[in-house]
Amino acid sequence: MPLEVLVKRGWIVLAVILLVGVAGWFWRDVIVKFSYNFEKTPPIISSASEIPAIGASPIEILLSFFDERAGIGSFEVTLVQENKTFPLIRESLLDKPMQNAVTSSVSIDPKKLGLRSGPVEIIVSAKDRALWSNEGKTSFASSVDLDKPRISVLSSVHNVTSAGVGMVIFKAEDPNLKKQGILVGTHLFPGYQVKLLDEQFSGHPEIFFSYFSIPFDFDLTQNPVKVIALDSAGNEASASFNFKLKVKQRPTSDINLSEVFLRNKTQELYPAYLRELKEMKGESPTVTPDQSQDLIYLFRQVNEGYRDLSSIRLETIFKDSQQSQLWHGAFGRPLSGSSTALFGQARTYRFKNLVASNSFHDGVDLASVEQDAVHPANAGVVLFVGDLGIYGGTVAVDHGFGLGTIYSHLSSMSVTPGQSITSETVIGRTGTTGLAGGDHLHYEIRLNGVSIRPEEWWDFGWIRDHLDAKIEDLKKELNPST
Ligand SMILES: [Zn+2]
Q1: How many angstroms does the Cα of residue 294 sit away from the middle of ligand 1?
Q2: What is the whole-number distance in angstroms between the Cα of residue 446 and the centre of ligand 1?
Q3: Structure pTM?
Q4: What is the DSSP code (8-state) at residue 277?
Q5: What is d(CA 9, CA 15) in angstroms, rounded to the nearest whole number?
Q6: In terms of domains, do 140 and 163 share one?
């Protein structure tokens, strides 16, 4: 056979093979899809998240339907309470393109439906598109809770100073109580059961105490200060309480920066700031060559940006506070030295008569001899030991119920996290680490992560009158005979 013919035949054979292959593949697909009409597997139904308890406000629940072959044809959701059936949604997808996976959000409005508090069952069914409409059915148990927690404030006198602390005692009752405390603006100071403070109250799990603090420059006309309680169905109750706020302005302070200080501190702390900014927030700011040489620019980044990051870290550290009182008596001064910078200062930093930066001083500075031994202000448990941004070498101590102290600019630290300490323990030695000019101790006391006025806690009379007295009053109220 001539070569030409052979080549021609080869092409024909190849073409036929290809055609048969394509046709086969096409038909196989058609046959497989057709066979889906005869599949017998019902759709799978699932809820995207756990079905929560249903409170007085409407909620949305997210449901997913999946049918591997024929696809979802229709679904239906009903709610059953005490033999009454409430249709929630019924949807057919038969006139839409076939989908294997469908999600649907279903709204439940208990008031509109006329539901009562108590258990409910949410019944979900779905049919596929097979000839005999295979049906899957699932039910989710939930409950309706239309009742808000009940709150009543028991303590009557609440005198607080700006950035100082007050204490409120209140009752919060709900079978599904989830959260309670004092809301100041957007910050919730948690309430703890008084029985955790004193066993004498073990019969009163419904009574709570909560410390709270109203910050400097707080606008009472714009922001709420109230007791709130929330149940697990999302019902929220609030109650106001009487308090007298003694407004104190921040002290101010002007600080002149030297070039040597600026150079040394920015050289050390600015790269550390960039590292942490990337780690914590995934941000890498673009810096112009001019800025990278500008000591004022670099200082402002460290003093303001790095300060913010350090504050966020402190708030996180103190989230692990224990629910028991670890301290007793007045808080001591961690050093014998006098205060060299007041709590709350609004600081203006100047360099060559230019304003370089502004910040607030969240603690007090205590004078020290070099590498002075530092004692904690009260008994507690060490929460953090290490380098903390502008704070430098830092020990953070938990005193329980959200109260914590920190000791900063330390040159060395001699305790470990988790260690129980008393006011006798030496936790470290003063130094100049972080953003410190000379050797001193920066001391802070924080409530639920918020920095508060230290001097109140140094004063046993204040503790007795503002905290202990409220507990004593409560004892009298509950046991009038004693
Ligand atoms: Zn300081």
Answers
A1: 25
A2: 14
A3: 0.84
A4: H
A5: 10
A6: no
Phi, psi of 138 (to 5 degrees): -140, 155
Residue 87 Cα to chain centre, angstroms: 37
pLDDT band at 33 (very low <50, low <70, confident <90, very high): confident
Read off the tokens for 461. 């009379």
Query: How many angstroms does the Cα of residue 17 sit away from the middle of ligand 1?
Result: 84
How far does the centroid of ligand 1 lie from the alpha carbon of residue 248, in Å?
20
Nearest Cα neighbor of 118 from 85, 99, 145 is 145
Comparing C-alpha atoms, which of 455, 314, 312, 289 is closest to residue 396?
A: 314
Same domain, 243 and 266: no
Query: What is the domain range of residue 230?
Result: 150-248
**DSSP code for 438:** S
Q: Are residues 238 and 215 part of one domain?
A: yes
Name the residue type at position 96. K
- Helices of type H across 36-173: 110-113
Centre of ligand 1 to C-alpha 215, Å, is 18
168-193 pLDDT tens trace:
999 999 999 999 999 999 999 999 99
Q: Is residue 93 part of a domain?
A: yes
Task: Find the distance separating the first CA and the last CA of the chain, reported in whole Å.
Answer: 124
The single-letter code of the amino acid at 349 is Y
Going by C-alpha positions, the residue among 119, 28, 136 that lies closest to residue 80 is: 119
For residues 394 and 264, membership in a common domain is answered with yes
**pLDDT digit string, tens, across residues 90-118:** 999 999 999 999 999 999 999 999 999 99
Bridge partner list, 412 = 429
- Helix extents (H) in 332-384: none
Cα distances (Å, whole numbers) of residue 416 to 378, 388, 419, 420, 446 = 17, 15, 6, 9, 20
Under the banding of pLDDT at 50, 70 and 90, the label for residue 1 is low
Gap from CA of 269 to ligand 1 centroid (Å):
16
Kind of pairing between the strands at 177-184 and 192-193? unpaired
DSSP 8-state secondary structure symbol assigned to residue 175: T
**Helix 259-281 vs helix 307-317: crossing angle, to nearest 10:** 50
| Amino acid (1-letter code) at residue 14 | L
Question: For residue 20, what pLDDT is reported?
Answer: 76
How far apart, in whole angstroms, are the C-alpha atoms of residue 190 and residue 192? 7
